[in-house]
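Hey everyone, long-time lurker, first post.

I ran two proteins through the pipeline my lab uses and got sequence/structure pairs for each. Pasting them in order. The first:
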Amino acid sequence: MDIEQKQAEHIDHFVKQASTIKGSSSYLANVIVEATSHPSLFAFSEILSLPNVLELQGTEHSIYLDLLQMFAHGTWSEYKSSASNLPQLTPDQILKLKQLTMLTLAEANKVLSYDVLMHELDVVNVRELEDFLINECMYVGIVRGKLDQLRRCFEVQFAAGRDLRPGQLGNMIHTLSDWLGTSDNLLISIQDKIKWADTMSELDKKHKKENEERLEEVKNALSLKADMDFRGHGLFAEPGGVMDYDEDRRSKRRRHPMG
């Protein structure tokens, strides 16, 4: 089962669980803690958009709504800067938020230096960083890439997407529209080049055929000339012709001797 299908199943589970809770913000807070601690859940926007979850705003449990927003869009460093206004994280939540931080970093840059990663993830040495990347990111399936110890960097080949921040959807639509326009122009250019190539191919075939026809005409003409030359040589140089003429002259001289 791929990661996308697993995500869909986990999201559906927590959405159903949270949507059935009515009038009990403490139970809803527990569901949020459970969701943000789940080892295989990395998307939270569907839970965040539930009406009863949004109703936590302004209540004594509003910090759990803020916590859910942090897991949907934030990073480990952002959590640390706001930790006094948020619930204390469990070890599972800390790991999850660091994994989500890795996704955000991988989305922005395809080559991540070890120094940047160690700073953003609060990792003290390269060995710990590489263990985290291998065991908690690549093995889990949220990131694929290459560890380059010589250059001290991680080359990102794939990273799972995170929930869109507010306002990101418009930018994404604009980006996709630009990409679509560029793709359409590229497709038109490719079609024009295909038509040009087809035209040149037809002209080349026509030119080749004309050359073959000319060559055949020349070969036929040369063959005909050679045949005519052969026949003409046989007509004027037939064996015995000169000998007969000379013999005839000698016989006439013998019949009319000079006095």
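...and the second, right after it:
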Amino acid sequence: MASCSSLNFTAISSKPQKPPSSSISSPPVQRPFTSHLSFSKSSSLHSDQTLFRTHCGILPPPNGAGFVVFGCARKADPLRIMISGAPASGKGTQCELITKKYGLVHIAAGDLLRAEIAAGSENGKKAKEYMDIGKLVPDEIVVTMVKERLNGPDSQEKGWLLDGYPRSSSQAIALKEFGFQPDLFILLEVPEEILVERVVGRRLDPITGKIYHLKYSPPETEEIATRLTQRFDDTEEKVKLRLQTHHQNVEAVLSMYKDITVKVNGSGSKQEVFAQIDGALTQLEQKQGKLGTVVA
């Protein structure tokens, strides 16, 4: 994913040997030299990489130069990550931090659905028909949207972070049939009592759209506090029902990705939670890194 930064190599000091005086021509002599190679961007050489050198051939004409080419090139497949978390688990915040550091394309099924409807695409029109009569959008429509986005040039080049999807084993199976297999499935785990407290204390400022929390992120002024509203489903009773549905869905999906699942304790601060995720992603990058040689 990242490539090496500028590297200075130790000189290989040696002078070309003069051909011995003989009527029989001597074999060509190699002439090494010291090279400073610059590589793109600012990433440093990883610990699992090795430097290679290639000897390039024959003693050149008097004004020419034989050379040794040193190179380091690291080519890694882009990361493909899925992340899941219950309502109020902090998944949205972690997605922002992941995409900011790793440059992955953030893909959320809900965002795709809204964008397709707004654009008036064929999939969007089909989805809107179901939503207008209060029905869930069929899996095949949503999976098609997700598939097309995962196949986008930016997703293929940069890698992707699939947010909160798949939510069922049937969706996971459909993605697998389309050839989409994540490298890592991140599951944010937060105790139910903390999740309930986070949800029930949330408030919305209808003027600015900013989300507050009565305990963790209270409004700045009394004026703002008086106009805050609570979402109709941010009650203890309803959030517990949502959590129950979430847990059932996650259990079904985990069976598909159990060998690549990383469970993260989401109870701490956003920095503490991200440190766990960052560690897992760094390990994955190192594992997937591939080293090649630069040849001139």
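Reply from user beta_strand_b:
Welcome! Quick read of the second one: The two ends are 22 Å apart (CA to CA). The chain is about 40% helix and 15% strand.
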